[in-house]
Amino acid sequence: MSKIILANTTTKTYDRALKEKIKAENVKLVNQIVEFQRRMYSDGRHNLLIIFQGMDASGKDGATRKVFSGVNPLGIKVHAYKKPTDKEFAHDFLWRIHQNVPQQGMIQVFNRSHYEDILVPTIEGYFEESYIEKRYQHINDFEKLLIEGNNTTILKFYLHTSKEEQLERLTERIEIPEKYWKHNDKDWETRKKWDSYMSVYEQIFEKCNQPEWHIIPSDRNWEKENHIAKIVLKAFEEMDLKYPALDSELFKEKGM
Amino acid sequence: MSKIILANTTTKTYDRALKEKIKAENVKLVNQIVEFQRRMYSDGRHNLLIIFQGMDASGKDGATRKVFSGVNPLGIKVHAYKKPTDKEFAHDFLWRIHQNVPQQGMIQVFNRSHYEDILVPTIEGYFEESYIEKRYQHINDFEKLLIEGNNTTILKFYLHTSKEEQLERLTERIEIPEKYWKHNDKDWETRKKWDSYMSVYEQIFEKCNQPEWHIIPSDRNWEKENHIAKIVLKAFEEMDLKYPALDSELFKEKGM
Question: What does the entry give for GO biological process (chains A, B) (predicted)?
């Protein structure tokens, strides 16, 4: 069965008490992330790349804001990938991606990523299938380089909103004045190709599964944030982060 | 037999008439390169990455100056790689390389390259062998990305000077005041490890041979330049470069 269908996102009904409980838990999780990030920064042997993919209005911005609020801005960067510029188009598709990968000690968030360079060309038919097939391999090679070559931990999240929930969110953007700025005609065009997107995503999950994709039920933001925060914390725990020992010729005798 | 030993660089004796003939030919070859580069720039479907490797004083700067003199500076960039900075060290070793790869229409010259990241760590024993082995694979994957992902033509040149010729050139740098600026104590240290360098180069030629390495006899500069220019021209010829047709709505009727 497809990974996406397994994600439980079809209902918004929930227990109010549960919601409050999860939201309280999220506050604690975020505090732990803040602490872990500080340790990763001083440790200097690890770095974290967070990839957020998802359909329009799936809450990628919100996930970044909520899960990483409180992290020292010195230790985190966010890059949102748009349609490539002329200059970017004049290079291989990973050129602009590589420029923004995290350096040691840092968290880097990608709001959309190199996976767009498979999604859009496949759905719009910009390239031959055999050419796109090569991109899957290039991506796998590239992610391997980051992992082996700089000890990067890559966490890939697909934020899955149901088609009904997307309709509700896009509609708000043309009905609520405070949300007008989020509206984009193109989102409604893309929505028509929903099934095609799902099918390409399934291929991506299958062919680029090292490291694996996390499919996050995202109709309820507090649930989405809870899933993501827990996965981030697990990754931090596996890094075995340490505050480094004192590195000093002057104070060697302290034995620190 | 090793590729390097096969390169005929052991004698500086030559026919003066031959030298004049080759130098006159070089002028013509360089002019052809200038013309081809102009066409590649306007064509916009190809780009060229030139990699120069070689021991100290093997004439990498000179090769760049002589073979590409006259090329419109708009269409060519040169990047010399030094010891990585702290910021570069905080990324995978190909991070700084990827930033400087050519965009469509351009020639990019690398004076030293990602191959230094195999040479130096192997000889100095900075990493485990198994880790360096991964770098060979990362380099092959990366070069494949440039070729498949942006239609880059990669020409790899090893400029081979004999050990005797290097001694002569390094000695000039401590005896001729106009050449003092080229002197570096470290070159004499590296020279002691000549055989180790040759053996790592042999491994590089073998493991990273797609695209292949060109071993250029470089004791005589005019001979070196002649070899390089011919290989560059051959690469241009294989690109099948064209000045593009007129792209105009206004002047469509001209049928250009």
Answer: polyphosphate metabolic process
- Per the domain annotation, does A14 fall within a domain? no
pLDDT score at B15: 83
Q: How many domains, chain A?
A: 1
SS (H, E, C) chain B: CCHHHHCCCCCCCCCHHHHHHHHHHHHHHHHHHHHHHHHHHHHCCCEEEEEEEECCCCCHHHHHHHHCCCCCHHHEEEEECCCCCHHHHCCCCCHHHHCCCCCCCCEEEEECCCCHHHHHHHHHCCCCHHHHHHHHHHHHHHHHHHHHHHCEEEEEEEEECCHHHHHHHHHHHHHCHHHHHHCCHHHHHHHHCHHHHHHHHHHHHHHCCCCCEEEEECCCHHHHHHHHHHHHHHHHHHHCCCCCCCCCCCCHHHCC
Query: Rounded to an integer, what distance in angstroms lies between the CA atom of residue B11 and that of residue B219?
Result: 8
pLDDT tens profile A152-189 = 999 999 999 999 999 999 999 999 888 888 899 999 99
Query: Predicted ipTM?
Result: 0.80
**A115 within domain boundaries:** yes
User: What is the domain-level CATH number for residue A209?
Assistant: 3.40.50.300
> Letter for the amino acid at B120?
V
Residue B252: pLDDT band (50, 70, 90) is low
Structural domain harbouring A137: 19-242
Could A144 and B141 be called an inter-chain contact, meaning their C-beta atoms sit closer than 8 Å?
Answer: yes
Residues in chain A with pLDDT values less than 70:
1-13, 252-256
Tens of pLDDT along B150-170?
999 999 999 999 999 999 999
What residues of chain B lie within 8 A of the CB of A91, using their CB? Answer: 101, 103-104, 150
The pLDDT of residue B228 is above 60: yes
Distance CA A117, CA A127 (A): 11
Average pLDDT score over residue span B16-40: 94
| Residue B15 in domain | no
- Cβ contact B150–A101 (<8 Å): no
Tokens, residue B78: 């040169």
Whether a cis peptide bond, with omega within 30° of 0, leads into A102 is no
Tell me if A146 and B92 make a contact (CB, 8 A cut-off): yes
In a domain, B17, yes or no: no
| Distance in angstroms (rounded) separating the CA atoms of residues A28 and A18 | 16
Q: Check: CB of residue A47 under 8 Å from CB of residue A107.
A: yes
**C-alpha span between A227 and A51 (Å, rounded):** 14
In whole numbers, what is the pLDDT of chain B averaged over residues?
92
CB contact under 8 A, A138 and B145: yes
